[in-house]
Design a protein that fits this description.
- It is a single chain.
- By secondary structure, the protein is mainly alpha-helical.
- It has 2 domains: about 110 residues, no CATH class; about 450 residues, MFS general substrate transporter like domains (Growth Hormone, Chain: A), CATH 1.20.1250.
- The strands form 3 sheets. Strands 1-2 form a two-stranded antiparallel sheet.
- The protein is globular, with a radius of gyration of 29 Å.
- About 45% of the residues are buried.
């Protein structure tokens, strides 16, 4: 009958249960032939050693691409390749356990071992020597309360709500004073239509620059401190806008307000991915992503009446007040979610408690903050230049976001010129797109997660029937609503353009057209945002930063061409041009669904 063996995991550990692994040996091997003994040596009969189930092995540091597993019982003599897995894979394997076998491990809180669901399918490769190093710190098992995945639901809701609210306020500032632009141009003595458009869009240009700073900073110092610092900058520069003595100073303040306002849009998706597992991420991402779409839509509604009654400067005072309040609340209640930072804090605490300076985080990259910052700035640009799937997603999102701001440039003119709206009521024309976006939000948040789970279940069942490995929840499953959004956006553009042209229909008709366009635009935006989060995982902040840079550039510069286009072609034919481009993008949406996985795997961006 096999015996139960207790073996220490590593030298130098305290003699307690946390330092031992309980193993169930397999059937004993045949006795080995005794080795020749040196002269004068004696030998005694020893029982044959049992063969133990696969386990992590402590040993000397290994190097090179091919490493041989000490004590391996594989039947071939080929070395085992130690391919370093991604951090997300390490997180995944940390959750895998022997469910159908009695081999269990009791490991110290600062060690981590890889085990497989099925011992028969246990990998024969060494995942990483660090996984067997007792000085490597990771989560204390699958239920570690310090892991943001295991936080209470209320804490996740608080974090998501704060990030979503901040992500609503910063885009709100991009357009809240748009109805007051004629008043400020008169106050500053300028009649340039280009400057009138640029004073609005320069804020979005700041959105393009901000991610290049806040994305790498968040990966060095954590998400929370970046939110706090950038919130202070956003607050201060909006006060500068409210007190601006000239048009040029207002443009400068607007740019830096946009730069510091980019933090939630860049890091928000990463924060949500830190806390919420993939299969439950759709609803949370929907609440987060509604801000960049709904904020610019609702801004003119409030800004129109303020500019009419109390002046355009109060639009900036309102933004400063809102940002100041949310900043204080975030300091009190927002908690850090980034695993690398949380594990480093755990390492620092354990070093003090144990006096062991050799302890280190499993996710420690070994880079200095300077090198990490350089890589963090370089990473989004790298994704935008050599990752085909990232480039396609960025261009697609940029078109939709650029269309959003092009339409904004026409609403005030169309509804004041053809329908007799005042400066205050003209802001209400933006509500059509806002209502459409809200319906899109509800639809996506309900449908996306359900489809992801059901589609993955069907794929796994088919894989089991064909005796193939399961692929799990592929990021491409998130894209099911992308072509629907492209179709609805195209319909909405034609609808709005020709119903509003020369005011030939009742004002509600073009507003309904903008609602359809808003519904479609949200589906496009949400599908691609969540796809990037799922596809790039631990680098979600950098992937979203790359996407934010592209769409912000489009939102900053495309509206500059909007007014000249409408003046030359009219509202009807101008929106026809936009609709044709949107229609061309419909087959691109299906192509992303079909070839997205191939592009990710064939052109994988390594050494990010």
């Amino acid at each position: 009958m096999p015996l139960l063996s207790v073996m220490p995991l590593a030298h130098g550990l305290q003699d307690d249960r946390s330092a031992y692994t309980l193993l169930e040996p397999l059937e004993p091997l045949e006795p080995l032939e005794p080795l020749p003994m040196a002269s004068g040596a004696t030998s005694s009969a020893m029982p044959p050693p049992p063969e133990y189930a696969r386990q992590p092995v402590s040993g000397p540091e290994l190097s090179g691409d091919d490493r041989t597993l000490p004590g391996s019982n594989d039947t071939d003599d080929r070395p085992h390749t130690a391919d370093r897995k991604s951090i997300e894979d390490q997180k995944t394997t940390q959750r895998e356990v022997y469910e159908n076998d009695t081999a269990l491990a009791l490991v110290p809180s600062y060690s981590c071992s890889h085990v497989a669901e099925d011992p028969e399918k246990a990998p024969s490769k060494v995942e990483d020597v660090e996984e067997t190093d007792p000085n490597v710190v990771f989560w204390d098992g699958d239920d570690d309360p310090e892991n943001p995945y295991n936080w209470p639901t209320w804490r996740k809701i608080v974090n998501c709500a704060l990030i979503s609210l901040l992500t609503f306020i910063t885009p709100l500032a991009s357009s809240i004073f748009a109805p007051g632009v004629p008043d400020l141009m008169r106050e500053f003595g300028s009649s340039s239509p280009l400057l009138a458009s640029f004073v609005v869009s320069v804020y979005v240009l700041g959105f393009a620059a901000g991610p290049l700073l806040c994305a790498p900073l968040s990966e060095i110092y954590g998400r929370t401190i970046v939110y706090h610092v950038f919130n202070v900058g956003f607050f201060c520069f909006n006060i500068g806008c409210a007190l601006a003595p000239s048009l040029s100073s207002l443009i400068v303040f607007r740019f830096f307000a946009g730069l510091f306002g980019a933090a939630p849009m860049t890091n928000g998706g990463g924060t949500i991915a830190d806390m919420i597992r993939q299969e439950k991420r759709g609803a949370a991402m929907a609440s987060f992503a509604i801000g960049p779409l709904l904020g610019p839509i609702l801004g003119p509604v409030a800004g129109g009446y303020m500019s009419q009654d109390i002046g355009w400067r109060w639009a900036f005072w309102l933004v400063a007040i809102l940002s100041g309040v949310i900043s204080i609340v975030m300091v009190l209640f927002l908690r850090e979610t980034y695993a690398i930072i949380l594990l480093q804090r755990k390492v620092d605490k354990m070093r003090k408690e144990t006096g062991n300076p050799a302890l280190r985080s499993k996710l420690d990259s070994g880079l200095s903050p300077t090198d990490y910052f350089k890589r963090g700035i370089y990473r989004p640009l790298k994704l935008l230049t050599i990752s085909p799937i990232s480039i396609v997603c960025a261009l697609y999102t940029a078109i939709g976001y650029g269309y959003l701001y092009i339409l904004f440039t026409s609403f005030t003119t169309v509804f004041m010129k053809y329908y007799g709206f005042t400066a205050g009521t003209s802001g209400l024309s933006f509500l059509g797109m806002g209502v459409g976006s809200m319906f899109g939000l509800v639809f996506f948040s309900v449908y996306s997660d359900r489809y992801l789970k059901s589609r993955a279940a069907r794929a796994d069942a088919a894989a089991d029937a064909a005796n193939r490995p399961r692929e799990g929840m592929k990021p491409e499953y998130r894209l099911v609503t992308l072509p629907w959004g492209a179709i609805l956006l195209t319909i909405g553009l034609f609808w709005y353009g020709w119903s509003a042209d020369e005011g030939r229909t009742h004002w509600i008709v073009p507003i309904l057209g903008t609602a359809v366009a808003g519904f479609g635009n949200l589906l496009i935006f949400m599908s691609l945002q969540l796809y990037l989060v799922d596809a790039f995982s631990v680098y979600a902040a950098s992937a979203l930063a790359a996407n934010t840079v592209a769409r912000s550039l489009a939102g900053a510069f495309l509206p500059l061409a909007g007014l000249p286009m409408y003046e030359a072609l009219g509202i009807g034919w101008g929106n026809t041009v936009l609709g044709i481009i949107s229609a061309v993008m419909i087959p691109v949406a299906y192509a992303i669904i079909r070839y997205g996985q191939y592009l990710r795997q064939r052109f994988e961006v390594k050494n990010l």
